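If you are new to this repository, start here. Below is one unmodified record pulled from the training split, so you can see the exact layout before writing a loader.
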Amino acid sequence: MRKFKFLNIRNERQFKAFTGLAQKEFELLLSEFTNCLNLTQQMRYKKNSLQRKRKPGGGRKGTLSTFELKLFFILFYLKNYPTFDVLGCLFDMSPAKAEENVVKLVPILKQAEKRLQVLPHRHFKPTMNNKQDHENINKIIIDATERPCCRPHHDRKQKHYFSGKKRYHTLKNTVIGDVNHGIPVVGPTAAGSRHDYALLKDELSPNQPGLSSVEVYVDLAYQGIKDRYPSFYNIHIPYKKPRKSKDNPNPTLTPQQKKENRAISRVRVIVENLIGDIKSFQILSIKFRNHIKNFGDQVILVVAGLCNLKNHYVVQ
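And here is the target side for that same chain:
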């Protein structure tokens, strides 16, 4: 088992608790992470070559002296989400330096995931199939996920981020899961007051080509999807229980409707498990504290890529 400068990790269980990845997955990611970091450094050296007084590699060595430790540092931050004071204390650096390293290493991690073909897309791009047989149909599950964030100080802005469903301020993303246990798409981050279906309508055009080869599973939040997206090959949405009235004092679904709802739930549970996977990274489950521009949007994309890596899912 790996021994880092500040930690002696004893077994695979502890390694997963610190990084969210198994040892083999860490090794695979480390190879591309090293290549991306080397490339970024070379580009920076070339850009600043006229102003440099030292050769590349000169000067004081930082606390994160190896590529391996840099990757461990950023994975530890995403998995456990300590404050920068705690993170700096654990890795023997100032809180400001800890923040600087996080901001610098997240884009490198994103590039490495892109090279490994595990980074999700931002918008759904259906594959074009000429044949309309069932074997060529792409089955996807659409859902939305929310994560708590700090209450904005501005009154109008805080109302925009207040989720009526969760009863606190949140950030929201559309997540499209594949039946092969992967996340091919994570939509742009929006305020928590936005409805799940409203997000989908902004992100996916009903006139987009290729929808005829896609079969969709959704929950009851997406009422009206069949009318707006008639191009889909098929749309599975659960039956809604009728409202109670004088004529129908004990509303209930028919046995056939209950059977169909259970069949849809057996498929939809895949995306629920995938959302649970990404929320095992504490940065997406506890209150999001960072105020760095677009950082919250980048974080959920990178974490979804790590979950694809864990599930051995390749994003086409």
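Two things worth knowing about this chain: The longest strand covers residues 138-148. The chain has two domains: 12-47+62-115, 134-310.
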